[in-house]
Design brief:
3 strands, alpha+beta, about 110 residues
Length: about 110
């Protein structure tokens, strides 16, 4: 299997959690303190930390510590990579997997 599909799958799997999607939506308006994010959800601080770690590990979110508080923002570079991946997957292109000879032979038997 092509490595890019494995990378896309890992990234989109990380996005499959509704809480993480809501966090991303909140961060689309700009940097937020973890305490502000936590106020929006009916979850514990450790659960929020788990979600934020996953988002940061994926590269989609960047965290910075200021005093005792953590502030989070979206990584524009990773957001653009995500957009590009979705566009590539959903657009016509001659490099599409459906044009590979092995699939064509299997489908036409």
């Amino acid at each position: 299997m092509d490595e890019k599909y494995k990378e896309y799958a890992q990234f989109f799997k990380m996005l499959s959690d509704p809480n993480r999607l809501m966090i991303i939506d909140m961060l689309s308006c700009g940097e937020l303190c973890a305490c502000v994010i936590l106020e929006r959800f009916n979850i514990t601080q450790p659960t929020l930390s788990h979600h934020m770690k996953s988002l940061c590990d994926s590269g989609l979110v960047v965290g910075r510590k200021e005093g005792k508080w953590m502030y989070y923002s979206l990584s524009e570079k990773t957001v653009q990579t995500c957009r590009s991946a979705l566009t590539e997957l959903t657009s016509y292109k001659e490099s599409c997997i459906c044009f590979q000879k092995i699939i064509e032979e299997d489908c036409c038997k």
